[in-house]
Structures are given as structure tokens and as C-alpha cells.
Amino acid sequence: MNEAIRVLKERRSVRQYEAKPVPKEILEDIIDCARLAASANNTQPWLFVVVTNEEGKSAIARLATYGKFIASAGACVAVFCEKDSKYKVEDGAAATQNILLAAKAHGLGSCWVAGHGKDYAEDVRKLLNVPEKYELISLVAIGYTNQTPNPPKKPLSQVLKWEKYE
Ligand SMILES: Cc1cc2nc3c(=O)[nH]c(=O)nc-3n(C[C@H](O)[C@H](O)[C@H](O)COP(=O)(O)O)c2cc1C
Predict the structure, then answer these.
(1) Does residue 98 lie in a domain region?
(2) Is there a contact between 141 and 6 (Cβ–Cβ < 8 Å)?
């Protein structure tokens, strides 16, 4: 199978990580992939804050209701977009998906943790000293793992229609 297709098909959310740091160059390459994502009108309204220090990760984990595992990940990427940007959610989501896929391509596990619209979004922004003009879109936990989760997926036949619904 083509390597890119394999990465897309085999990516799954991982919520348990090994206590092994992720090299800075790899994290930088992952963010390089994120900043090349599609965005409406090529606005690129994003800002990525990569948190690797234990205190920072634990503080984010305490805030994120369903992201307690962030504390044990090698890194957490907080994805922000300019709040006045029209397609901030779509643009931030596209960048977030690139992060998940780039992490997988580097042999890392990751998990998207909700950010946009959550009651802790502003607290995360303040914790990371991010200016008010930005809004949190997502948090992504990244780390080495030996887990291979396999949640059920709808079959292609259930979600694909050719030409018209029927
Ligand atoms: C917008 C969004 C928000 C999510 N928020 C969380 C979250 O807060 N905590 C979590 O553990 N997983 C979260 N996930 C991951 C989903 O639970 C996961 O993608 C889904 O169960 C499918 O599993 P898979 O990623 O392994 O294919 C989120 C995913 C998306 C797209």
C-alpha cells in the first residue's frame, strides 16, 4: 500500500503513551505539516503552541474534561485560530488533522482533544499566554505508544453513494 494512504487508513486515537520524550525536530516537522493545511482563501489564521514541559501538560490536562491523558503524552499541541477569521473552525480542524497524520507518519500516537467552544478554552489560552485575538480550536496529545486501538468504523458501503443518494 502507498505509504501516505497507509498512514491515513491506520491512524487511530491513542490515549496511552510511553514515558519517552518526542524529539524537538519531529514536533517541528509535525507543525510544519500543520501550517501547510488547506485554509479558506489561504488565510492561515492559525497559531500552534507546543507544550512539552510536565507542568504545562499537567495544567492543560486538568482543564481538558476528556483529555486527562495529555499529562502523560510526550507533547500537547494547542491549536488556535484568529477568532475573527470566518472559517476558523474548518481551518483549525484541517490543521489538526494534518497534525494527527504527521504524528502517525513519524511513528507516534496522537489524540484530538476537544477545544473549540469548551468552557475551558479561555483558560487554556490564558495559561499559555496567547493573545486575546486567538481562540482555541483543539488540543492534540502526541507521544510514543505501543497501543493499537481499533474502534469500529462504518463500512464504505454505508457511507458512499455514487452520483445521487438513490
Ligand atoms: C472534534 C473532536 C473532538 C474530540 N475530542 C476528544 C476528547 O475530548 N477526548 C478524547 O479522548 N477524544 C476526543 N476525540 C477523538 C475521538 O473520540 C476519536 O477520533 C473517535 O472516537 C474515533 O476514533 P479514532 O480517532 O481512533 O478513529 C475528538 C475528536 C474530534 C474530531
Answers:
(1) yes
(2) no
Within a domain: 19: yes
In a domain, 102, yes or no: yes
Residues within 6 Å of ligand 1 by CB: 12-13, 15, 66-67, 111-114, 149, 151
Domain range holding 126? Answer: 3-146
Domain count across the chain: 1
pLDDT of residue 130: 99
The CATH number of residue 27's host domain is 3.40.109.10
d(CA 124, CA 121): 5
Q: Which helix (H) or strand (E) holds 55?
A: helix 54-63
Q: How far is the CA of 165 from the centre of ligand 1 (A)?
A: 28
Residue 159 located in a structural domain? no
Q: Taking the model in full, what pTM does it have?
A: 0.99
Question: Is residue 89 helix, strand or coil?
Answer: helix
Beta strands in the chain (DSSP E): 46-51, 75-82, 109-114, 134-143
Please choose, from the candidates 10, 33, 20, 43, the residue with its C-alpha nearest in 3D space to the C-alpha of residue 143.
Answer: 20
Task: Supply the Cα-derived Rg of the chain in whole angstroms.
Answer: 16
Q: Does the structure show a pLDDT above 90 at 1?
A: no
Task: Report whether 24 contacts 30 (CB < 8 A).
Answer: no
